[in-house]
């Protein structure tokens, strides 16, 4: 095949791949985050919500006072970025929300138990702020 045909085929395949993706890439809240490991899959800590929080958009999670949250990463401070952590709620009462990871204000939670030190600085990616 000629190069032009190969390029066209590649672009058609790429286009069909992206057409199956549903969601929105939102603005990055920070260029870096702190994690316990390179992939940010291990929980850093367990925190308890001190107040309710209603998510302003799909990058964030709703939390309720008293709810437990597994913290997976902490955004590195850039303007307001350091004010947000990412995590997932843990509470059988909110079973439908368990496993959904999103951002929340760090000022609304108190760390109850630290599992691992967040000592790895990792660049954020656009997928970190993807909304499904």
UniProtKB/TrEMBL annotation:
Secretion signal: which residues? 1-23
Protein name in UniProt: Otoraplin
Q: Which GO terms describe its biological process?
A: cartilage condensation
Alphabetized, the UniProt keywords read: SH3 domain, Signal
List the PANTHER family: OTORAPLIN
Q: Name one Pfam family in it.
A: SH3_2
Organism expressing this protein natively:
Eublepharis macularius
**SH3 domain location:** 42-114
């Amino acid at each position: 095949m000629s190069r032009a045909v190969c390029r066209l085929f590649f672009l058609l395949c790429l286009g069909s791949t992206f057409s199956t993706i549903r969601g929105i890439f939102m603005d990055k809240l920070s260029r870096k985050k702190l994690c316990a490991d390179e992939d940010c899959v291990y929980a850093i800590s367990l925190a308890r919500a001190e107040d309710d929080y209603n998510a302003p958009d799909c990058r964030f999670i709703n939390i309720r006072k008293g709810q437990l949250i597994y913290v997976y990463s902490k955004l590195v401070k850039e303007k307001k970025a350091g004010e947000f952590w990412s995590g997932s709620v843990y509470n059988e009462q909110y079973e439908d929300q368990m496993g959904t990871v999103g951002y929340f204000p760090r000022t609304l939670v108190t760390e109850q138990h630290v599992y691992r030190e967040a000592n790895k600085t990792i660049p954020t990616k656009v997928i970190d702020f993807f909304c499904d």
